[in-house]
Specification:
This protein has 124 residues and is of the alpha/beta class. The protein has one domain: STAS domain (Transcription Regulator spoIIAA, 2-Layer Sandwich). The chain is 44% helix and 27% strand. The protein is built from 4 helices and 5 strands, in the order ββαβαβαβα. It has a 5-stranded mixed sheet with strand order 1-2-3-4-5, sandwiched between helices. β1 and β2 form a beta hairpin. It is globular and about 50 Å long. 32% of the residues are buried.
């Protein structure tokens, strides 16, 4: 896994497999990498070749943990990819927000933060 991005939105690019052997460690590494001041995290799954139930559970936990911190976690996986199919079969596609690209996910996070800031402005 590699981490990149700026102070607003970080991206965790995962390649290979996400399964019982590494899901817990990946989850903690991702959560620890995001400062409380960031808007959120994009988990790039485009390089993931295998995702089992532990990986799906990890993604659900990430969504919940970032929500608790008032941050956003979105996944990025190409339309029609194996990962998208696994998330759909597991019924997790309604819980884990997934965009086709990292750019789309990042733009969604920034736009939602901008909208929230506008709602908090006096007289808005």
């Amino acid at each position: 896994m590699t981490l990149e991005g700026d102070r607003e939105v970080l991206t965790a690019r995962i390649t290979g497999e996400i399964d019982l052997s590494n899901a817990s460690e990946l989850e903690e590494t991702i959560v620890d990498a995001v400062p409380n001041t960031a808007l959120g995290m994009v988990v790039d799954l485009s390089g993931v070749e295998y995702l089992d139930s532990a990986g799906v559970r990890m993604l659900v936990h990430l969504v919940e943990r970032f929500r608790w911190r008032q941050q956003v976690m979105r996944a990025a996986a190409p339309d029609g990819s194996r990962v998208r199919g696994v998330l759909s079969m597991a019924g997790a596609d309604g819980v884990i927000p997934v965009d086709a690209t990292v750019t789309e996910a990042r733009e969604w996070i920034v736009a939602s933060a901008d909208e929230a800031a506008k709602r908090e402005e006096p007289g808005a």
